[in-house]
Fold this sequence. Notes:
By secondary structure, the chain is mainly alpha-helical. The protein is built from 9 helices and no strands.
Amino acid sequence: xxxxxxxFGLLGEGTIFQTRDRSSLAYWRQxxxxxxxxxxxxxxxxxxxLDRPRxxxxxxxxxxxxxxxxxxxxxxxRLAFILALAVEVWGGWKAxxxxxxxxxxxxxxxxxxxxxxxxxxxxxVESLLRKIQFGLPA
Length: 138
């Protein structure tokens, strides 16, 4: 299973996606059309407990009860992708959670889950994970 497929799974692919296409483009197209709040709730269960309230405020600031706003859908999709990549790199949830929760010097001593709150930070977390994945200095 690749990272995009794992991210689809985290978002509850069987309940929200109306296509059999599991490409990255289909993933982002679905996110642009708006994710159900329930999909985000599936994802946020995998965020370290102390960070969940902050992620809920970031993704759904107005408390939508059906569909996330576009910016919230984008953040939820980005979070699902980062979580999926961390699981792939670290080989499971326990090790991924440990990585995501601890401050990292390449992220200005933020934890990866904190850094991923912004687009720029998420790109830095993805870059860090790819370095680890390919055995480069991180």
